[in-house]
Every structure is written in C-alpha cells, then in structure tokens.
Amino acid sequence: MLLDFLSFKPHSDVHSVPSTESMPPHQNLDEINGSLACRKPYHRNGSLNNNPEGKEALADRNLDHVNLKKRVGLLSGVCLIVGTMIGSGIFISPKGVLAGTGSVGLSLMVWVGCGIISLFGALSYAELGTMITKSGAEYAYLHEAFGPFHKTLGPIPAFLFAWTSVLILKPALFGVVSMSFALYTTEPFFECGPPETLVKIVSILCLLLVSAINCYSVNMATKVQNFFTAAKLIAIAVITIGGFVYMGKGEIEEISTGFEDTIQSPSLIALAFYDGLWAYDGWNNLNYITEEIQNPRRNLPLAIMIGIPLVTVCYLFTNLSYLTVMTRAELLQSTAVAATWGDRVLGVAAVFIPISVALSTFGAANGSCFTGGRLTFVAAREGHLPQVLSYVHLKKFTPLPSLLVSTFLAGLMVLMGDIFALIDFFSFTAWMFYGSTMAALLVLRYTMKDVERPYKVPIILPVSVLCVSIYLVIAPIINDPRIEFLYAFVFVISGLVFYVPFVVMKKSLPYTDTVTKFIQLILWCAPSKYESEYVGD
C-alpha cells in the first residue's frame, strides 16, 4: 500500500513518491508505490514486525481500499449506549418531568415510560441493524428503504438526514456537551460564574482532546468510553445509595405524597414525556458504528437490551433519591440538583458531585465524537458528501477526515454563540427522522420480506414509536409556535439545493481532485468500501 511512501526512510531502494498530478484520488493503493511483494516494508519508526496495526495494514496490501476494523465488543457497545445517554442533564436539571406532571408518583411513571419508549425504538433499530449491517443508523436505513423506489427521489430522505445531522445536529450536540464539561470544570474557581471566554477556550480544548483520542485509535476511544461510563455509574450509585440511606432513616415524606397534586392537563403531561425522552436521547448511537461491532447480529440487540434498561433504572433511582432528600419545590428551584443533593448528604465530600458531572460530560463528548464522525463517513461513502470524507487512515483505521470535519463544525458552533438555542429549534427534526426510520422499517417489512432477520420485533413497537415521533414533531410547535421552527424546517429542505447539482447531476467544484489528492497524502488515508461479512447484505 502506501507503506514505503509513509516510512520516510532514506533508502535508495524505496520507491519514489508519485506526483499528485498523476495520482487520481481513488487510485489503487498498490499502483501508487508499486508491488510490495519483493520489498521489505518499513514502518515510520522501524520495522512493522512488532506493530500490530502495521501488520493489519500489511495484510491488506493487495486491496484497493482500507476499511474500519471490528474493535467494538459487547461491553464497549453497552458503555457507548449508557455513556452517551447519560450526560449532564440527570445531574443538573432533571426537573422538566416533575414540572409537567406535578406529582412524585406520575413523574416516576413518566421516567419509566420514557425508558420503555426508548427501548421500543432501540429494539426496532436492532432489527434494522442486524438486517442491514451498515454503519450510519438512520442514514443507512432510509437509504435502503426508500432509495430503490426512484433513482432521483428515493435517496432524498437519507440525504436530508445527513445534511441536517452532519451540519447541525451532531456537531451541535458535540459542542453542547463540551461546553457542559467546560462549565463544570471552571465553575468551582469562580464565585460569580466563569467568564464566557474561558468557558469557550476550555470547550475547544475538550473538543480537540476528544477528537485526538478518536483519530488516534478506536481501541483507545472505546477504553476512554468504558472508563468514563464506569465513573458516571459510580456517581449514580453513590446518589442512589445515599437516597436509600435517607429512606432507611424514615425520610419518605415527599415520596409518600404519591400522586397528590397531579396535573390534569393531558397536553402538559405529554410535554413531560417530551422532556423525559430527550434525557434518553442517544439510544440509537450504537447503530452508527454497526460495521465496527464484533458479531453485530448478536451484540447489537444484546447491548441495547442491557444498556437502555440500565439507564432507565439509573434515572428512576436518581430521581427517587433526589425526592428523598429534597422537596418538590426545592428540586424545581435548584439550578444544579445533584450539587444541592451533595451539599446535604455528602457534606465536605460534596466536591465529588461536580467532579462526577465533569467526568460524565467528557465521556458523553467522546461518545458523540465517535458516532458523529461515522455518520459523515458513511454519507460520504455513498456519494452524498465529498468522497474524501469517507477515507480511512492507513495505519490507525480511523475515519480521520470525517472526524476532523465534525470537530471543526462543533468548534465553530461553540465559538459562534448560543448553541443551546440552536438545538432547541432543531430538536423536532431529530424526531422527524426517528419517525421516518420507523416508517422505513415498515416499508422494508414489505419490500424485503424474504430477507433474513436475525432479530425481529413485534410490529406494534415501531408503530408505537412512529406515533410518538409524530407527536414530538408537532407538540413543541403547537405549544410554543415560533418563527425559528420555520427557519429550521427551511434549512432541512434547503439541502435539495445541493442535492440536485452534486448528487443527481454529479457536478463537482473546481480543484476537487487536487484537494482530494492533497488530503489523501497529508492525512495518510485511502478510500474505503463497504464489505459485509454476511451473504446477501
């Protein structure tokens, strides 16, 4: 492959580097440097013999592409789900559900109900992910379901999802989580709150560190995810145990109120579900990396069956503990619920709480980077984004260009301003695509009814999630109609302005090939291609 070229070893027998003028962006890798069969390959730091990743590259030297490797096992899959679902919300402000229900009993039922809805959605995705073993989650499923119907119109849902998610939703989420990390690492040093400039600087540093980890190694990224997921579970365990201790002391006055003061308005209760379901957002993240999961037809549904019930139990026990230590009024008034809980229960050890929040948000940022980069990678591989974004690093087997673009966009949003408002106005679009994916599952039940489904859910599950998705698209607009929602919708469909010339007509910008060659050489990356390990995929 490019091993001789990448070695930078001044041996006379090493091939000369071809000029970028003569090397097309998708050139067969062996043609770039000639056959390696009769030459001793060198690694940049010496022989490849003691370098496992280098050996993988050598083993693939006869291929004209480089693929991502299957390095995510069951434990890492569970940690990715749990680590991205549990961010900072449950520690800072889990009061939306209580405000919408009015009572302890109904609020706890809503938390469990949201967990069940999320599980229904994730299990429906498990059916899709075990049948279509491509990474990219919604993008891959929308493309497979609707693409065959019409050469031009069929791929539009998948393209609009990629357009919206790659440019807005994924980088905005990555940026928000990094800002939460920055706030909770700097706040203890400032009585009146940290300066905005400092928060942005720390946010950018967080983005760069997380991106560097993900660019360097998938194994390192999964180990980081596993560690920080364990840390946040320990924090939740401490809060849960503290609550049970207080219950043992007879502090159950607030919990014993049960369903007193329950709000009777169905619309407000429905909005409580809206807040609760956003706390569970991230239940679909494992489907973004299906191609990197070891034995996905077993581990994908199994990780979902472990991860989402675990998050549901964590949310239930955490809220139960809060309501054991605080009254409903105190919980609703607190700007940092876990910190208030820590001051009362942990005393001088209350510093444990902000440290836990910082660890939790860093882990969530790592998971957001890991999955967001894969969406960009897959959309580019299908021709819906610049092809160079689907390239893979020759030695590390990471989607380096797509990760760098995702990090750049997230950093841009952090620097530009009110990223939280941006997410508020685009949040309904996420549920629009969740609902579209449930519809895709129903379509595939008809168009691909004879295809093997290693895991199949009862039809009521995707239908239920589809109905919930329709409500969650409409509810925020009806409850608080604002012109910004129209702007968000216009942005989504504005992707068609780029779809027609660049996808349908296959036009390209001037110097695209030159830029592609330059990026391929400077980042040591090469084209990738989807290769299923299963017959018929």
Overview of the molecule:
The chain is mainly α. The protein has 22 helices and 4 strands. It has helices spanning about 5, 30-35, 50-60, 75-85, 90, 95-100, 105-130, 140-145, 155-185, 195-215, 220-250, 265-280, 295-325, 330-335, 335-345, 350-380, 400-415, 420-445, 460-480, 485-495, 495-505, 510-520; strands spanning about 40-45, 45, 390-395, 525. The strands form 2 sheets. The chain has a two-stranded antiparallel sheet. Strand 1 and strand 2 form a beta hairpin. Helix 4 packs parallel to helix 13 (about 295-325), helix 9 runs antiparallel to helix 18 and helix 16 crosses helix 17. GO terms for molecular function: L-amino acid transmembrane transporter activity. Keywords: Cell membrane, Disulfide bond, Membrane, Phosphoprotein, Transmembrane, Transmembrane helix, Transport. Its main location: membrane. It is a multi-pass membrane protein. It is found in: Apical cell membrane.
Topology:
Layout: H1 3-7, H2 29-33, E1 42-43, E2 46-47, H3 52-59, H4 74-85, H5 89-92, H6 96-101, H7 104-131, H8 138-146, H9 156-186, H10 196-216, H11 218-248, H12 266-279, H13 296-325, H14 328-333, H15 337-345, H16 352-381, E3 392-393, H17 400-416, H18 419-447, H19 460-479, H20 483-493, H21 496-504, H22 512-522, E4 525-526
Antiparallel strand pairs: 1-2, 3-4
Helix pairs in contact: 4-11, 4-13, 4-16, 7-12, 7-13, 7-18, 7-19, 8-9, 8-18, 9-10, 9-16, 9-17, 9-18, 10-11, 10-16, 10-17, 11-13, 11-16, 16-17, 18-19, 18-20
